[in-house]
Amino acid sequence: MLSSENQKKYLERIGLKEHQEVCLSSLAQLQEAHLCHVPFENFDVTFQREIELDAKRIFQKVVHHRRGGFCYELNYNFYRLLKSLNYSVQLISAQVLHGKTFGAEFDHLALLVDLEDVLYLVDVGFGNFSSNPINLSRLKVSENIAFKVDFDGEFYTLFELNEKHQWQAQYQFTLQPRCLKQFSKMCVHHQTSTQSPFTKKSLCTITTEKGYTYLSNNQLVRVEYGQKISQTIDDEFQLEFILQETFGVSLPKEYDRKILLRN
């Protein structure tokens, strides 16, 4: 899936020099490194720059241009890396919970990795997520207590422990393998529809040692050990500094930063 040169560049992008053997601990290291170095962000949607599901363009954006992206970009890119490292991995479709109902099929792209006949949910394209792959054969138990997966006989459902210490559904999925082309229609939807959460506001989020940090329009929020620290960003210089220092993102010069400073 990736040349040895591109594999090396990708590993460097996520702060790793090399990859060890194919095993759960190495997979967890890859997932955590990715979450901590590559942000989930929808800036191209905000600036109305078309996102195409093209492997070369996605790799250029995330690795060479040191950007983030949304699920179709980040998880597919990670899929290609895992393939090149000899992991048994497949694309799956998930339906994100919007309010009280789950979205359409192909609403979200996630990954399943098979390690010694045990399936793990892997996701680097959902913003805040477990730093460890989630074992689907050990339901209601996760290596990260903030996330769990239940199975109702038809769908697997990912839950996150919210601020009120209640389990809140995030998305549901099946184990059916998918191909990238099947996500094309929903990828266009999420860039253009007024019903898409990505056309309503800009968002950038990244995992940190203490929790995670996100920028929503001009609001910067640091979540550290469950506690929120909020800050309003009111000028372009401050915004540019935060994008580079906190999220590692350098936006193209032609992107009007003022758009990101809206409330």
List keywords for this structure.
7 helices, 263 residues
Q: Can you walk through the features of this model?
A:
A hairpin with a 2-residue loop joins strand 12 and strand 13. The chain has two domains: 4-192, Arylamine N-acetyltransferase fold; 197-261, no CATH class. The protein has 263 residues and is an alpha+beta fold. Helices cover 28% and strands 27% of the residues. The model has no long low-confidence stretch (mean pLDDT 93).
Q: Indicate the CATH class of the largest domain.
A: Alpha Beta
Helix/strand class = alpha+beta
Mean pLDDT: 93
Number of domains: 2
Tell me the layout of helices and strands.
Elements: H1 4-13, H2 24-37, E1 40-41, H3 43-46, H4 55-64, H5 71-84, E2 88-98, E3 101-102, E4 108-115, E5 118-122, E6 134-135, E7 147-151, E8 156-161, E9 167-173, H6 184-192, E10 203-207, E11 211-216, E12 219-224, E13 227-232, H7 236-247
Antiparallel strand pairs: 1-10, 2-3, 2-4, 2-9, 4-5, 5-6, 7-8, 8-9, 10-11, 11-12, 12-13
Helix pairs in contact: 4-5
